[in-house]
Amino acid sequence: MTLFLCFLLLFLLSSASACDRCLHHSKAAYFSNASALSAGACGYDSLALGLSGGHLAAAVSSLYKDGAACGACFQIRCKNPSLCSSAGTRVTLTDLNHNNQTDFVLSSRAFRAMANKGMGQAILKLGIVDVEYKRIPCEYKNQNLAVRVEESSQKPNYLAIKLLYQGGQTEIVAMDIARVGSSNWNFMSRNHGAVWDTSRVPAGALQFRFVVTAGFDGKWIWAKTVLPADWKTGVTYDSGVQITDIAKEGCSPCDDSPWG
Predict the structure, then answer these.
(1) CA 59 → CA 8, 31, 96, 136, 229, distances in Å?
(2) More confident: 93 or 21
(3) 114-168 tens-digit pLDDT
(4) Are 94 and 34 spatial neighbours (Cβ–Cβ below 8 Å)?
(5) At residue 20, does pLDDT exceed 70?
(6) Among the residues of the chain, which ranges form H helices?
(7) What does pTM read for this prediction?
């Protein structure tokens, strides 16, 4: 089993993007209704608004990574200096963008935030702008990774959970569950986006372990006591672990100069 897990970790890491921190150029549009993004493919629903104050984004499949990048944070700025600020805006990925004409579709709040003071309506009138972007670490001060038990869970045979407040510049690419104090681990599957599930639910209080990647670097992280034996649907539980890993520079070298 240990050998299998090592091979699994190596495979998952080999598929991770090593150029997340490089600067990229594309276009961005916006949705006028932020609920379209909060109710998106990642499955955050109304909880999305608490991740970054409504600065949300849908990204193309290469950035969405089959849901592994749900919750990832990006710095985006438009390239029109007369209209937009040099700081740009920070967004959290909450949805899949099916339109390949742009890498991102932003919430209108995030789209306006790229503009210079007093130019918010002007940038909205454009509808689509040239941008440059890079992935950045997510920061949740004094906030651990949280596990929300989804309403679709049915004790004792089925458990679905949603992961919230994943910090650093990381992706959770595999996840296991076990009874607290047991070494008999069962794997969980990504149902969609940030939601994982299993039909092999151990009895009693539950612990989790995650394969967390940061660029081409990765490791196991253990959350030793997360769900109590009497876990309930609709409740969010503190994992007791805080993820702060930062992706290493994997491009050799980056095609663009660092963000300045």
Answers:
(1) 27, 13, 5, 15, 37
(2) 93
(3) 999 999 999 999 999 999 999 999 999 889 999 999 999 999 999 999 999 999 9
(4) no
(5) no
(6) 2-14, 35-38, 49-52, 61-64, 108-113, 120-126
(7) 0.88
Mean pLDDT of the chain: 88
Residue 111 sits at the vertex; the CA angle it makes with 105 and 116, to the nearest 5 degrees, is 155
Give Cα separations from 25 to 63, 97, 129, 133 (angstroms). Answer: 13, 16, 11, 7
Q: What is d(CA 188, CA 175) in angstroms, rounded to the nearest whole number?
A: 6
CA distance 33 to 222: 38
Place of tokens 């679905």: 160
* Residues 75/134, Cβ–Cβ less than 8 Å: yes
Tokens 């930062």 appear where? 246
The structure tokens listed for 220 are 């196991």
Strand partners, 171: 213
Longest dimension (CA), the chain: 61
Mapped onto helix, strand or coil, the DSSP state of residue 221 is strand
The number of beta carbons lying within 10 Å of the beta carbon of residue 112 is 18
For residues 153 and 160, the answer to whether their CB atoms sit within 8 Å is yes
201 pairs with which residues across the strands? none
Residue 50: pLDDT band (50, 70, 90) is confident
Q: 182, 142, 174, 165: which is closest to 67 by C-alpha? A: 174
The residue type at 27: K
Instruction: Report how far apart, in Å, the C-alpha atoms of 181 and of each of 11, 36, 77, 203, 206 are.
Output: 28, 42, 48, 12, 9
pLDDT recorded at residue 5: 47
